[in-house]
Amino acid sequence: MYYFWVPEIKMPEHYFESDGGSCVCRLCGEARLRTFSVKLLECPHCGVLVSTEQPRDLQAHYSKDFYTEEQGERFRFGLELPVRCFRWVRFRRLMRRGPYLRVLDVGTDRGWFLKCFQDAGAEVFGTQLSKSAARVASRRLGREVFLGELSDAHFPEASMDLVCLYHVLEHVREPQAYLREIHRILRPGGALVIEVPNARCLTARLFGRHWLGWDFPNHIHHFGPASLRALLERHGFKVLEESHWSVEFGPFHILQTILNAFGCSHNQLYSLIQREELHADRRASAASQMAMLALAVLLSVPCGLLSVLLSLCREGEIFRFYSIKGGKAV
User: Fold this and answer.
1) Which spans in the chain are helix H?
2) Residues 259 and 242 in one domain
3) Structural domain includes residue 28
4) How far apart are CA 183 and CA 245, in angstroms?
5) pLDDT digit string (tens) for 219-272?
6) Which of 44, 199, 200, 253 has an alpha carbon 20 to 30 Å from 215's alpha carbon atom?
7) Are residues 301 and 204 in the same domain?
8) Which H/E stretch holds residue 189?
9) How do 102-106 and 160-166 pair as beta strands?
10) Domain that holds residue 209
11) Confidence (pLDDT) at 143
């Protein structure tokens, strides 16, 4: 059980219905949200968690705080290269179920993932909220990446073989609207891949507010496997595969969470590896950074092993669903 409770919380205005101001879950519509923690509300019916701290303007937020203005980069110390390798691993994993002729990547990052599909002969499409990342991705792909929300792109009905949302659904205000739109633009039998942090994992339960995956205010909705599976089924998708292993996110999530619990500045390692201009206001002193790095080195191997063990127990920091369009959306 999570251990940081409060009696009352103020919810963002867009979650309140006009009739009496009742705070009804917008994902299932079956129950009123209830207080779960200092910054979270919970739907007792579908189990989704909703952040009360949210960006006012999503496009402005992700243009300013996620990518550098000129190069669209996020990380320093040469970490952009392993990120590119991780995108190739994603591509190879999906090609085991391919091939795919038309691929849409929602929140397409810097375009590396789509470039793999493009080089394999697929026609690729992407959306992005960050102007700098969209510019870099468009240049890399040689075609325009749509800047804005998915619904505003107006892709043709039944036009896609594969739609990917890697660490996107937790960032959007209306996940159900995204799923309805994806159901519309996927061909019958087309595939949808979603990967999100696992808000019901063991480390989230044990470490509470120290868990990296909350990532306030960037993450608006927080899912567990049961709540996301129910949401997908309600919108006409059939889950074929569930995975809890992520070499990109799992070990680091656990490491940063433990560092937070040990008293290091909140998400200090995560801030350190990002470009200076993105989080210059959050840099700690040199002594604090050295102490944190020494502890991180000591914990890195145990955290990696723990990540493997938890993923085998279906308690991984991250989970991923591979699903297909298999029914009528509600």
Assistant:
1) 58-65, 80-95, 112-119, 131-141, 175-185, 202-207, 225-234, 250-261, 268-272, 286-312
2) no
3) no
4) 26
5) 999 999 999 999 999 999 999 999 999 999 999 999 999 999 998 888 888 888
6) 44
7) no
8) strand 186-197
9) parallel
10) 55-246+319-325
11) 95
* C-alpha–C-alpha distance, residues 14 and 49, integer Å: 15
Helices (H) and strands (E) in the chain, counts: 10, 11
182 and 294 assigned to the same domain: no
What does the pLDDT read at residue 94? 96
Report the C-alpha gap between 243 and 195 in whole angstroms: 9
pTM score, whole prediction: 0.87
61-101, pLDDT tens digit by residue? 766 655 555 555 666 656 788 888 999 999 999 999 989 99
CA distance 16 to 22: 6
Is residue 226 located within the same domain as residue 271? no
Q: What single letter denotes the amino acid at residue 117?
A: F
CA distance readout (Å), 49 to 67, 92, 152, 250, 305: 27, 32, 26, 21, 28
* Shared-domain flag, residues 137 and 286: no
Q: Which two tokens stand for residue 56?
A: 């006012």
> How is residue 49 annotated by DSSP?
E
**Buried b or exposed e, range 14-45, using 16+ CB within 10 angstroms:** ebeeeeeeebbbbbbeeeebeebbebbbbbeb
